Amino acid sequence: MSVKNEVMAEKGVGLWEELLISGHRSDKNKQRDQFRHPKETLEFFGIKSGMTVVEIAPGGGWYTEILAPLLGPNGKLYAAHFDPESEVEYFRKSRKGFGEKVKANAEVYENVEITTFQPPEMFDIAPEGSADAVVTFRNVHNWLRNGRGATVDSFKAMYKALKPGGVLGVVEHRLPKSMKQDEKASSGYMHQDFVISMAQEAGFKLVATSEINANPKDTADHSKGVWTLPPSLRLGDKDKEKYMSIGESDRMTLKFVKPATK
Questions:
Q1: Taking each helix axis from N to C terminus, what angle separates 192-201 and 148-161, rounded to the nearest 10 degrees?
Q2: 96 C-beta neighbours (distance < 10 Å), count
Q3: Taking Cα atoms as reference points, which of 30, 107, 124 lies closest to residue 69?
Q4: Which residues contact 53 (CB under 8 A, 6 or more apart)?
Q5: What percent of the chain shows pLDDT beyond 90?
Q6: Of 17, 29, 132, 166, which has the most beta carbons under 10 Å away?
Q7: What confidence score (pLDDT) does residue 2 get?
């Protein structure tokens, strides 16, 4: 790790501005900070230098780019990604691309270990009781494709990986209470109480909620679900200006703990 990153790791959140403008982050990813509020979100979850953290379903590594240098040389990041041998091409390509990203910038990602998280069967995300925190960003709706049981099992895997007293941080697209919850969350949106209930069923205790990632402009009633909005813009140029003015989705931000004692 470079001297600069070592200093950043030692200082943790004290050098957030420097971390967010770091050259290993693309301009495209930096532009999304205004919607994802990484500093405020990770501070809310209590993520600090030296921690052992599991990132569930990191995708292209948007948050990994921030988490790895934040945790620093004394920290550890388990990136629980797709099955590299999945029958689904999208999963294989995504995992391969993420692996190449980590390998190509070993100086930034030297504390990253890639593991596998592929509901409803593969949950070997980190050694049992090893993590100070588990975080997941806009992923819970995907697990519902395999049913509520598989989603609860996903939360149970996170519970197992955490130390007693460890934190689970969840960000998810939020469905207004006035709208009916699709059991498969096919729109990408979920009721906040629904997400909380599944985490609680796995043993977690809700300790705090935040409106850090709220967006009151988002009505959640779009023809292509959450993917109508940026960055996906599934409708292409149709009403693009309208959806760009809304911005990214309205999101819940939830903080749970694994009770220190049962």
A1: 60
A2: 13
A3: 107
A4: 47, 67, 71, 75, 76, 77, 78, 131, 132, 133, 134, 135
A5: 91
A6: 166
A7: 46
